[in-house]
Structures are given as C-alpha cells and as structure tokens.
Amino acid sequence: MASGSFPHQFEGSFSAFKERQLVFALTRQLADAQFRRGDRSLSERLWQEAAAEAMDAERITGLLYGVHDHDDPAAMEAVDRLYRERQREALRRASTPLARLARLTGHRPARRSRPHRSARPGQAPVAGSGR
Fold first, then answer.
1. Which class for 28: exposed (0-12), middle (13-18), buried (19 or more C-beta within 10 A)?
2. How many other β-carbons are positioned within 10 Å of the β-carbon of residue 83?
C-alpha cells in the first residue's frame, strides 16, 4: 500500500529518504508552532529535538522560510533538493587536492581575485582604488 506522500521512486538511499521525511515532519511542526500558534516554548522544544537528532538548522530554516505551503510535499522536496545539491557541491570542493593540501598544511588556497567593490559591472577597477 502506498500513501499519497510516498513516492514510487526516490533519490538516494532509503536512509536518506527517511531522514528527509523526518526533517519535513519536524519542519511542519515548527511551522505550526512558530507561525500559526506563536507557541515559543513548543518551538524551543522542537529546535532542541532537531539539535538532539543532529539535524542541520540551516536546512530546516531554509524549508521554514523557503516554502509557502508546508503541507505541499513537492514544494518541500524542491527546496530541499537545492539544499542537498549545495551540500554535495561543498563536499566535492572539500575533497579537491588543493583543499586536502590546505588542511594538511594549515593554509587556505588563494581566492580568485575579484574587481574592487567600487568597480561597476563590466568595468575594470581603477588602479590604486583598492587595498
């Protein structure tokens, strides 16, 4: 028997799917406590539960404020998919040879140089305008 919110196919492992469903359920409870009820003590307990379960507060906050209807599984999934993609990209960047070397040596790789903030888009910075 398949429920209405259970997809026939899901991305990733089953444990990742279960984790995502727990995050969604907690986010719905937080939205109810914070936005509908204005219940500060319930909201604090739910945030403590999220911390105890090692859920990412940034992920939950993104869902709370990035989704209009928290009862819409497709909207929740769309916002969470962006979060997961950013996390995968951060892990990929952290595993590059330069990032690994930086961790070993304690030095951070040099950032790409950018035009000074005062430069307009498409205009090169004026010599001596930056520090």
1. middle
2. 17
How many other CB atoms are there within 10 angstroms of residue 42's CB atom? 15
Q: Chain centroid to CA 114: how far?
A: 26
pLDDT at res. 38: 95
3-state secondary structure 5-23: CCCCCCCCCHHHHHHHHHH
**Do residues 23 and 80 make contact, with C-beta atoms less than 8 angstroms apart?**
yes
How far apart are the C-alpha atoms of 108 and 96, rounded to whole Å?
A: 13
What residues contact 129, with CB distance under 8 A and at least 6 apart? 116, 118, 119
Tell which residue, 100, 97, 80, has the closest CA to residue 21: 80
Task: Read off the pLDDT of residues 40-73 as tens digits, 9 standing for 90 and up.
Answer: 999 999 999 999 999 999 999 999 999 999 999 9
Residue by residue, DSSP assigns 75-116 as HHHHHHHHHHHHHHHHHHHHTSHHHHHHHHHT-PPPPPP---
- Tell me what the pLDDT averaged over the chain comes to: 82
